[in-house]
Amino acid sequence: MSGLNQLFQHLLGRRGADAGCDDSLEVLDLFVEEELEGRRAADTFPAVAVHLESCPDCREDYEGLRELARSNGSAPRGISR
Ligand SMILES: [Zn+2]
Question: What is the whole-number distance in angstroms between the Cα of residue 35 and the centre of ligand 1?
Fold first, then answer.
């Protein structure tokens, strides 16, 4: 079984599961992108949405990314920290 496949199963598959900090940060820019394109990011990445509810640190990152993406147009790329 491929590790990457497992990661995606983990991230995409189980509603109600918490993705955890590392996995959430891994897809946070995709999550924000989904939202900005008007899709339901919480449906695409339910485990990340759950995590953001429960983790203030990741939520802060998420909100920062979202702000940046909004002020830069719709492409949250090339963000330096
Ligand atoms: Zn977290």
Answer: 19
